[in-house]
Amino acid sequence: LGNTVLHILVLQPNKTFACHMYSLILAYDRNKEGPGSLELIPNNEGLTPFKLAGVEGNTVMFQYLMQKRKHSLWSFGPLTTVLYDLTEIDSWAEDQSFLELIVSTKKREARQILDLTPVKELVSLKWNMYGRPYFCFLALFYILYMVCFTMCCVYRPLKPRTGNKTSIRDNTIYVQKMLQESYMTYEDELRLVGELITVIGAVVILILEIPDILRVGAAKYFGQTILGGPFHIIVITYACMILVTMVMRLTSTSGEVVPMSFALVLGWCNVMYFARGFQMLGPFTIMIQKMIFGDLMRFCWLMAVVILGFASAFYIIFQTENPENLGQFYNYPMSLFTTFELFLTIIDGPANYDVDLPFMYSVVYFAFAIIATLLMLNLLIAMMGDTHWRVAHERDELWRAQVVATTVMLERKLPRCLWPRSGICGREYGLGDRWYLRVEDRVDPNKHKMMRYTEAFKAQDRDNYDKGLEKLEINRDVLYKKEPSVLSLSRSTSRTSSHRGWEILRRNT
């Protein structure tokens, strides 16, 4: 019951009341340390009160709980050194990482916790010491891997075509070699090494991605933009296309160019995932994802309706015409592709002025140009501009969340020997087996000076008050006779000595 009340207090809108009640309940907790503590009992979702405060974006409760966990080492002037308990914060030994919970939640307030102490210092330490070097090395390794795969595709085994053409529009001069003919020369053996590297890389990608899908869930793993959800779909599809190409090569099945071309496009598009390691390029990957899976997906439904309607009309108009004079609409698939190009203004309106064109072609093309080019394309540009404006206001916040997600991903996938635990063991300071992060806080000199003035003025007021009480106790008989004079003396003393100091402090503030 006490643990349930603690979880309810984290969700309370009245933050001050929740903090006081939280402390009151914990005061009656017998097991304040260890696994039996109320603060360490998770709810049905596996969240302790501390993790729930982070997921809900309750910054007041989070800071209150962190103040209870910190230990001050020493203070010298404006410089203070504090040890923060990393229990439930550090993702090194957590199955359900606190950092991963923050970046995967849909509440924007939760991402503000990434800018608070000690989360900000912990993420900065992990990223600068291990995350950034490993991520840059991984990006370089992936680019070299894609270069190897591209060269294998460019020099794939082909031979001249020997059969006769079946149509005047048939333009094929090379065909794919059979498996027995593909690996006979020294150049073929070099290509075989590159193909083996490509297949091994695809298998490694699937081995690394599938456990995370099973652990997190497909909807959450692929649906979170900050976690790189669309890029996970791209890289898994790429690996599957590589395996399909391998099967078609081994069985000598024609048509391997289809999965191979898809793999090339997806593999090189996945290079954009590594832009999140750079502050200048990271937010732009978020913009591209939101535009593709937000604005463009909605716009494609409208575009598909318009293209289907006008492509059908163009095909019907030129169905009775000679395709040699105007071949852009000679069959229905070509009509769809030509209409799509016209929609995006990639080509100009097809016309052959040596022959008479149908009158309805001019009427339909006029309506198509008004609806598609002037109306719908400008609508798409306006939608993307609005998305760019919204994301630009959150670019720094989104980049920090990307860094946290990337750091947690690398920490989970790399061996423990390559990623030691961050922080200081509490045994060095007699604080048990918990791990702590040492943070040095430097107060602004002007603010520190004003705080010293305030304490000095308060101490001076207390001294004046104590002196007045001593005089009153010594001269009790005189007090009844000269009470107004004594009171006026104490007031005048406080006004002359400290009132001036308070006025100076107010003006400086």
Précis, in short:
This protein is mainly α and 509 residues long. The chain has helices spanning 2-10, 15-27, 49-55, 59-69, 98-104, 108-111, 119-154, 179-182, 186-216, 218-223, 229-250, 257-269, 282-317, 332-343, 359-392, 395-413, 445-474, 476-481, 483-508, and strands spanning 70-76, 79-85, 158-160, 174-176, 424-425, 435-442. One of its GO terms (molecular function) is calcium channel activity.
What do these coordinates show?
There is one protein chain. The protein has three domains: 5-116 and 423-446, no CATH class; 125-277, no CATH class; 291-408, Helix Hairpins, CATH 1.10.287. It is 64% helix and 6% strand. It contains 19 helices and six strands. The chain has helices at 2-10, 15-27, 49-55, 59-69, 98-104, 108-111, 119-154, 179-182, 186-216, 218-223, 229-250, 257-269, 282-317, 332-343, 359-392, 395-413, 445-474, 476-481, 483-508, and strands at residues 70-76, 79-85, 158-160, 174-176, 424-425, 435-442. The strands form two sheets. It has a four-stranded antiparallel β-sheet with strand order 1-2-6-5. A two-stranded antiparallel ribbon has the order 3-4. A hairpin with a 2-residue loop joins strand 1 (70-76) and strand 2. Helix 7 (119-154) packs across helix 16 and helix 13 crosses helix 16 (395-413). Residues 135-393 form the Ion transport domain. It is a multi-pass membrane protein. InterPro entries: Ankyrin_rpt-contain_sf, Ion_trans_dom, TRPV, TRPV5, TRPV5/TRPV6.
